[in-house]
Amino acid sequence: MTPEDTLAPAIFGIDHIEEDLERTEALQFRGRSLSYVRALQVLKDIITGPHRVPSVVDRLKTAWNGRQFNAYFSRPFLLLAAVRAEAMESPDHPLARGFATEDPDHFAVTREAMLAALSPERSGVWIMLATRMTQTNEVSRAVVWKWPAALAGWDKSSRPVALVDVGASGGLNLIGDRLPNTWKDGTGKPLRVASNLDVCMRVGFDVQPLNFNRSDDIAWARACIWAGAAQRVARFDGAVREWLRSGQIKAPPALYKLNAALVPARLPELFAKLPDSGVLVIYQTATRESMALSKRRQYEERLRQWLARIPPRRAVWLEAEATPEHQASLAITAHVPDGTGGVLSMELGSTELHPETVRVQTRSATEFTKYFSSP
How many beta carbons lie within 10 A of that of residue 146, not counting itself? Predict the structure, then answer.
Protein backbone atom coordinates (compact mmCIF):
# COMPACT_ATOMS: atom_id res chain seq x y z
CA MET A 1 0.00 0.00 0.00
CA THR A 2 1.35 3.43 -0.92
CA PRO A 3 0.64 6.65 1.00
CA GLU A 4 -1.68 7.72 -1.81
CA ASP A 5 -3.92 4.73 -1.13
CA THR A 6 -4.81 6.17 2.27
CA LEU A 7 -5.93 9.53 0.91
CA ALA A 8 -9.63 10.09 0.30
CA PRO A 9 -10.82 12.51 -2.37
CA ALA A 10 -11.20 16.10 -1.27
CA ILE A 11 -14.38 16.85 0.68
CA PHE A 12 -16.41 20.03 0.51
CA GLY A 13 -18.63 21.62 3.14
CA ILE A 14 -19.90 19.19 5.78
CA ASP A 15 -20.11 16.06 3.59
CA HIS A 16 -19.25 12.89 5.56
CA ILE A 17 -18.29 14.91 8.62
CA GLU A 18 -19.54 12.22 11.01
CA GLU A 19 -16.85 9.83 9.74
CA ASP A 20 -14.14 12.45 10.15
CA LEU A 21 -15.23 13.32 13.69
CA GLU A 22 -15.15 9.64 14.68
CA ARG A 23 -11.81 8.95 13.01
CA THR A 24 -10.15 12.03 14.49
CA GLU A 25 -11.37 11.11 17.96
CA ALA A 26 -10.00 7.58 17.65
CA LEU A 27 -6.67 8.28 15.94
CA GLN A 28 -5.70 11.67 17.31
CA PHE A 29 -7.16 12.26 20.76
CA ARG A 30 -8.18 9.00 22.40
CA GLY A 31 -5.77 8.41 25.26
CA ARG A 32 -4.28 11.90 24.80
CA SER A 33 -6.98 14.51 25.45
CA LEU A 34 -10.18 13.74 27.35
CA SER A 35 -11.51 17.24 26.70
CA TYR A 36 -11.17 16.87 22.94
CA VAL A 37 -12.54 13.32 22.92
CA ARG A 38 -15.59 14.58 24.75
CA ALA A 39 -15.83 17.65 22.48
CA LEU A 40 -15.85 15.56 19.31
CA GLN A 41 -18.50 13.25 20.75
CA VAL A 42 -20.66 16.27 21.60
CA LEU A 43 -20.08 17.86 18.19
CA LYS A 44 -21.04 14.64 16.43
CA ASP A 45 -24.31 14.60 18.36
CA ILE A 46 -25.01 18.26 17.58
CA ILE A 47 -24.15 18.06 13.88
CA THR A 48 -25.09 14.54 12.81
CA GLY A 49 -26.90 12.71 15.61
CA PRO A 50 -30.62 12.03 15.98
CA HIS A 51 -30.80 15.13 18.18
CA ARG A 52 -28.80 17.33 15.82
CA VAL A 53 -29.43 21.06 15.89
CA PRO A 54 -30.48 22.30 12.43
CA SER A 55 -29.51 25.92 13.12
CA VAL A 56 -25.91 24.91 13.92
CA VAL A 57 -25.77 22.62 10.88
CA ASP A 58 -27.04 25.42 8.63
CA ARG A 59 -24.48 27.92 9.96
CA LEU A 60 -21.72 25.38 9.48
CA LYS A 61 -22.84 24.75 5.90
CA THR A 62 -22.75 28.49 5.25
CA ALA A 63 -19.30 28.92 6.85
CA TRP A 64 -17.84 26.06 4.81
CA ASN A 65 -19.72 26.68 1.58
CA GLY A 66 -17.26 25.92 -1.23
CA ARG A 67 -14.36 25.20 1.14
CA GLN A 68 -12.23 22.17 0.30
CA PHE A 69 -10.75 19.90 2.98
CA ASN A 70 -8.15 17.27 2.17
CA ALA A 71 -7.30 15.51 5.45
CA TYR A 72 -9.80 13.61 7.59
CA PHE A 73 -8.79 15.68 10.62
CA SER A 74 -9.01 19.10 8.94
CA ARG A 75 -12.59 19.92 9.90
CA PRO A 76 -12.53 18.47 13.44
CA PHE A 77 -9.27 20.31 14.17
CA LEU A 78 -10.72 23.54 12.78
CA LEU A 79 -13.83 23.25 14.95
CA LEU A 80 -11.76 22.63 18.08
CA ALA A 81 -9.28 25.42 17.34
CA ALA A 82 -11.99 28.00 16.61
CA VAL A 83 -13.82 27.22 19.85
CA ARG A 84 -10.54 27.20 21.81
CA ALA A 85 -9.53 30.57 20.31
CA GLU A 86 -12.78 32.12 21.53
CA ALA A 87 -12.53 30.41 24.92
CA MET A 88 -9.01 31.73 25.48
CA GLU A 89 -10.25 35.31 25.17
CA SER A 90 -12.50 35.27 28.24
CA PRO A 91 -12.76 33.32 31.51
CA ASP A 92 -16.54 33.67 31.16
CA HIS A 93 -16.66 31.65 27.94
CA PRO A 94 -18.89 28.55 28.37
CA LEU A 95 -15.95 26.27 27.53
CA ALA A 96 -13.18 28.20 29.28
CA ARG A 97 -12.59 25.45 31.87
CA GLY A 98 -12.64 22.73 29.21
CA PHE A 99 -10.64 24.40 26.45
CA ALA A 100 -8.77 27.53 27.56
CA THR A 101 -6.60 26.32 30.41
CA GLU A 102 -3.57 24.06 30.27
CA ASP A 103 -5.25 21.86 32.87
CA PRO A 104 -8.61 21.33 31.14
CA ASP A 105 -11.65 19.89 32.87
CA HIS A 106 -13.34 17.46 30.47
CA PHE A 107 -16.47 17.45 32.64
CA ALA A 108 -16.98 21.07 31.56
CA VAL A 109 -17.37 19.97 27.93
CA THR A 110 -21.12 19.45 27.74
CA ARG A 111 -23.69 19.67 24.98
CA GLU A 112 -25.10 22.84 26.55
CA ALA A 113 -21.67 24.49 26.76
CA MET A 114 -20.84 23.59 23.15
CA LEU A 115 -24.17 24.94 21.90
CA ALA A 116 -23.49 28.18 23.76
CA ALA A 117 -20.00 28.33 22.23
CA LEU A 118 -21.52 27.94 18.75
CA SER A 119 -24.37 30.40 19.23
CA PRO A 120 -25.11 32.93 16.44
CA GLU A 121 -24.09 35.78 18.75
CA ARG A 122 -20.52 34.51 18.86
CA SER A 123 -19.60 35.87 15.45
CA GLY A 124 -15.87 35.40 16.06
CA VAL A 125 -16.04 31.62 16.06
CA TRP A 126 -18.03 31.60 12.81
CA ILE A 127 -15.63 34.03 11.12
CA MET A 128 -12.71 31.77 12.08
CA LEU A 129 -14.54 28.69 10.81
CA ALA A 130 -15.11 30.42 7.49
CA THR A 131 -11.66 31.96 6.99
CA ARG A 132 -9.01 30.17 9.04
CA MET A 133 -7.23 26.87 8.50
CA THR A 134 -5.52 24.80 11.16
CA GLN A 135 -1.76 25.16 11.09
CA THR A 136 0.80 23.36 13.21
CA ASN A 137 3.72 25.38 14.50
CA GLU A 138 5.36 22.49 16.35
CA VAL A 139 9.01 23.47 16.70
CA SER A 140 10.03 19.98 17.83
CA ARG A 141 9.58 18.95 14.18
CA ALA A 142 12.79 20.81 13.32
CA VAL A 143 14.42 17.48 14.12
CA VAL A 144 13.59 16.54 10.50
CA TRP A 145 16.56 18.66 9.38
CA LYS A 146 18.68 19.21 12.50
CA TRP A 147 19.36 15.50 13.01
CA PRO A 148 20.20 14.72 9.33
CA ALA A 149 22.41 17.83 9.31
CA ALA A 150 24.48 16.21 12.08
CA LEU A 151 24.57 12.87 10.24
CA ALA A 152 25.77 14.66 7.10
CA GLY A 153 28.48 16.53 9.01
CA TRP A 154 27.29 20.07 8.36
CA ASP A 155 27.71 21.31 11.92
CA LYS A 156 30.54 23.53 13.08
CA SER A 157 29.94 25.59 9.91
CA SER A 158 31.57 22.98 7.71
CA ARG A 159 29.46 24.03 4.72
CA PRO A 160 26.68 26.55 4.01
CA VAL A 161 23.12 25.24 4.44
CA ALA A 162 20.01 26.75 2.84
CA LEU A 163 16.66 25.80 4.41
CA VAL A 164 13.42 25.57 2.43
CA ASP A 165 10.31 24.75 4.50
CA VAL A 166 7.32 23.49 2.47
CA GLY A 167 4.11 24.05 4.42
CA ALA A 168 5.92 26.41 6.77
CA SER A 169 2.87 27.93 8.51
CA GLY A 170 4.53 30.66 10.59
CA GLY A 171 8.06 29.45 9.77
CA LEU A 172 9.27 28.67 13.29
CA ASN A 173 11.18 25.56 12.20
CA LEU A 174 13.30 27.77 9.94
CA ILE A 175 14.99 29.05 13.10
CA GLY A 176 15.27 25.60 14.68
CA ASP A 177 19.04 26.05 15.02
CA ARG A 178 18.34 28.91 17.45
CA LEU A 179 15.96 26.91 19.65
CA PRO A 180 16.64 24.34 22.42
CA ASN A 181 17.42 20.73 21.55
CA THR A 182 14.90 18.47 23.28
CA TRP A 183 15.17 15.07 21.54
CA LYS A 184 16.41 11.69 22.67
CA ASP A 185 17.33 8.57 20.73
CA GLY A 186 15.80 5.15 21.24
CA THR A 187 18.07 4.43 24.22
CA GLY A 188 17.02 7.56 26.09
CA LYS A 189 20.25 9.44 25.43
CA PRO A 190 20.28 12.97 23.95
CA LEU A 191 20.03 12.80 20.16
CA ARG A 192 23.02 14.32 18.41
CA VAL A 193 21.82 17.17 16.25
CA ALA A 194 23.77 19.81 14.34
CA SER A 195 25.15 22.85 16.14
CA ASN A 196 26.93 25.99 14.93
CA LEU A 197 25.42 25.68 11.48
CA ASP A 198 26.25 28.14 8.72
CA VAL A 199 22.67 28.81 7.56
CA CYS A 200 22.88 31.02 4.50
CA MET A 201 19.18 31.06 3.53
CA ARG A 202 15.83 30.49 5.27
CA VAL A 203 12.77 30.38 3.01
CA GLY A 204 9.28 29.10 3.82
CA PHE A 205 6.27 28.51 1.58
CA ASP A 206 2.66 28.11 2.71
CA VAL A 207 -0.78 28.58 1.18
CA GLN A 208 -1.69 30.83 4.11
CA PRO A 209 1.44 31.80 6.04
CA LEU A 210 0.97 33.21 9.52
CA ASN A 211 2.60 36.49 10.50
CA PHE A 212 3.89 36.42 14.05
CA ASN A 213 4.21 40.18 14.07
CA ARG A 214 0.40 40.10 14.33
CA SER A 215 -1.20 39.33 17.68
CA ASP A 216 -4.24 37.68 16.05
CA ASP A 217 -2.03 35.22 14.16
CA ILE A 218 -0.13 34.38 17.35
CA ALA A 219 -3.43 33.82 19.16
CA TRP A 220 -4.69 31.57 16.37
CA ALA A 221 -1.51 29.48 16.28
CA ARG A 222 -1.70 29.06 20.06
CA ALA A 223 -5.37 27.99 19.78
CA CYS A 224 -4.34 25.29 17.28
CA ILE A 225 -2.28 23.66 20.05
CA TRP A 226 -4.37 21.15 21.96
CA ALA A 227 -5.87 22.20 25.26
CA GLY A 228 -3.72 20.80 28.04
CA ALA A 229 -0.50 20.65 26.00
CA ALA A 230 1.38 23.00 28.33
CA GLN A 231 4.85 22.00 27.11
CA ARG A 232 3.89 22.62 23.48
CA VAL A 233 2.51 26.04 24.35
CA ALA A 234 5.72 26.90 26.22
CA ARG A 235 7.85 25.77 23.24
CA PHE A 236 5.69 27.81 20.90
CA ASP A 237 5.87 30.96 23.00
CA GLY A 238 9.65 30.68 23.30
CA ALA A 239 10.01 30.14 19.56
CA VAL A 240 7.84 33.17 18.77
CA ARG A 241 10.03 35.34 21.00
CA GLU A 242 13.07 34.14 19.08
CA TRP A 243 11.27 34.65 15.76
CA LEU A 244 10.58 38.29 16.62
CA ARG A 245 14.34 38.77 17.02
CA SER A 246 15.23 36.84 13.87
CA GLY A 247 15.26 39.88 11.59
CA GLN A 248 18.69 40.70 13.02
CA ILE A 249 20.36 37.35 12.32
CA LYS A 250 22.37 36.29 9.32
CA ALA A 251 19.94 35.07 6.63
CA PRO A 252 16.70 36.14 8.35
CA PRO A 253 13.70 33.93 7.49
CA ALA A 254 11.34 34.90 4.68
CA LEU A 255 7.84 33.49 4.12
CA TYR A 256 5.95 33.41 0.83
CA LYS A 257 2.34 32.57 0.01
CA LEU A 258 2.53 29.69 -2.46
CA ASN A 259 0.89 26.33 -3.04
CA ALA A 260 3.30 23.44 -2.54
CA ALA A 261 2.72 22.23 -6.11
CA LEU A 262 4.47 25.38 -7.34
CA VAL A 263 7.48 25.14 -5.02
CA PRO A 264 9.65 22.98 -7.35
CA ALA A 265 9.54 25.77 -9.94
CA ARG A 266 11.17 28.11 -7.39
CA LEU A 267 14.03 25.77 -6.50
CA PRO A 268 16.33 26.56 -9.46
CA GLU A 269 16.33 30.21 -8.44
CA LEU A 270 17.13 29.34 -4.82
CA PHE A 271 19.80 26.82 -5.80
CA ALA A 272 21.50 29.43 -8.01
CA LYS A 273 21.98 31.65 -4.94
CA LEU A 274 23.92 28.97 -3.04
CA PRO A 275 27.66 29.27 -2.47
CA ASP A 276 29.63 26.67 -4.46
CA SER A 277 29.93 24.36 -1.46
CA GLY A 278 26.38 24.94 -0.18
CA VAL A 279 23.59 22.39 0.15
CA LEU A 280 19.88 23.09 -0.37
CA VAL A 281 17.72 21.38 2.26
CA ILE A 282 14.04 21.11 1.31
CA TYR A 283 11.92 19.71 4.12
CA GLN A 284 8.30 19.14 5.09
CA THR A 285 6.66 17.99 8.31
CA ALA A 286 3.18 16.42 8.45
CA THR A 287 2.26 18.27 5.27
CA ARG A 288 1.30 15.46 2.89
CA GLU A 289 -2.20 14.76 4.19
CA SER A 290 -3.22 18.40 4.05
CA MET A 291 -2.48 18.65 0.32
CA ALA A 292 -5.04 17.99 -2.39
CA LEU A 293 -4.15 14.69 -4.05
CA SER A 294 -3.66 16.19 -7.51
CA LYS A 295 -1.46 18.98 -6.13
CA ARG A 296 0.54 16.52 -4.07
CA ARG A 297 1.25 14.32 -7.09
CA GLN A 298 2.35 17.36 -9.05
CA TYR A 299 4.57 18.56 -6.21
CA GLU A 300 6.28 15.21 -5.62
CA GLU A 301 6.81 14.42 -9.31
CA ARG A 302 8.31 17.83 -10.07
CA LEU A 303 10.45 17.83 -6.95
CA ARG A 304 11.87 14.40 -7.82
CA GLN A 305 12.54 15.52 -11.39
CA TRP A 306 14.39 18.60 -10.17
CA LEU A 307 16.34 16.70 -7.52
CA ALA A 308 17.46 14.03 -10.01
CA ARG A 309 19.22 16.71 -12.09
CA ILE A 310 21.23 18.15 -9.20
CA PRO A 311 24.85 17.04 -8.60
CA PRO A 312 25.26 14.62 -5.67
CA ARG A 313 25.59 16.09 -2.18
CA ARG A 314 24.25 19.52 -3.22
CA ALA A 315 20.60 19.03 -2.24
CA VAL A 316 18.38 16.85 -0.07
CA TRP A 317 14.61 16.54 0.34
CA LEU A 318 13.61 15.53 3.87
CA GLU A 319 10.15 14.37 4.93
CA ALA A 320 8.61 13.71 8.33
CA GLU A 321 5.26 12.22 7.35
CA ALA A 322 2.74 9.74 8.70
CA THR A 323 2.71 6.32 7.07
CA PRO A 324 -0.28 4.09 6.23
CA GLU A 325 0.83 1.61 8.89
CA HIS A 326 1.49 4.20 11.60
CA GLN A 327 -0.84 7.19 11.44
CA ALA A 328 0.22 8.38 14.91
CA SER A 329 3.94 8.63 14.10
CA LEU A 330 6.19 10.25 11.51
CA ALA A 331 8.71 8.52 9.28
CA ILE A 332 11.81 10.64 8.62
CA THR A 333 12.85 10.00 5.02
CA ALA A 334 15.70 11.51 3.00
CA HIS A 335 15.75 11.77 -0.81
CA VAL A 336 19.01 12.67 -2.57
CA PRO A 337 20.27 12.75 -6.18
CA ASP A 338 22.04 9.48 -6.98
CA GLY A 339 24.34 10.97 -9.62
CA THR A 340 22.89 8.90 -12.49
CA GLY A 341 19.70 10.88 -13.13
CA GLY A 342 17.70 9.23 -10.37
CA VAL A 343 16.78 9.75 -6.72
CA LEU A 344 17.93 7.62 -3.79
CA SER A 345 15.51 7.39 -0.83
CA MET A 346 16.40 6.35 2.72
CA GLU A 347 14.12 6.06 5.76
CA LEU A 348 16.39 7.35 8.49
CA GLY A 349 14.09 6.77 11.45
CA SER A 350 10.74 7.57 12.99
CA THR A 351 9.33 9.79 15.71
CA GLU A 352 6.09 10.96 17.28
CA LEU A 353 3.70 13.54 15.80
CA HIS A 354 5.16 15.95 18.35
CA PRO A 355 8.73 14.62 18.32
CA GLU A 356 10.50 13.67 21.53
CA THR A 357 12.27 10.40 20.68
CA VAL A 358 13.84 9.46 17.35
CA ARG A 359 13.99 5.72 16.67
CA VAL A 360 17.03 5.48 14.41
CA GLN A 361 17.23 3.11 11.44
CA THR A 362 20.95 2.52 11.87
CA ARG A 363 21.68 1.08 8.42
CA SER A 364 19.95 3.92 6.55
CA ALA A 365 21.40 6.59 8.85
CA THR A 366 24.88 5.19 8.20
CA GLU A 367 24.21 5.13 4.45
CA PHE A 368 23.12 8.79 4.59
CA THR A 369 26.29 9.73 6.46
CA LYS A 370 28.48 7.92 3.93
CA TYR A 371 26.66 9.55 1.03
CA PHE A 372 27.53 13.05 2.24
CA SER A 373 31.06 12.13 3.29
CA SER A 374 31.94 10.79 -0.16
CA PRO A 375 34.22 13.00 -2.28
Answer: 23
